[in-house]
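Hi there,

I know you've been waiting on this one. I reran it after we fixed the sequence typo, so this is the corrected version. Both the input and the resulting structure follow.
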Amino acid sequence: MLRLIHDKRPRSLTELAALTGRQVSNLSRTLRMMEGYGLVKLKKNVREIEPVALATEFLIMLNAPKGDQA
């Protein structure tokens, strides 16, 4: 969803819902959770809320548990 928001730049949740095939209410809950993690910003415009992707790249580092020599 982050890539979709970044690439398509929807101007509203309704527009993003059409792109994803999800209902606006369901999408809104997901985006608010993602906003809480700092992944998206929900920009309030006059009548709409515009989703903006803040995080588009991730680095995942895995460490072996102590005592495990992988």
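Quick highlight: The CA atoms of residues 39 and 64 lie 27 Å apart.

Best,
R. S.
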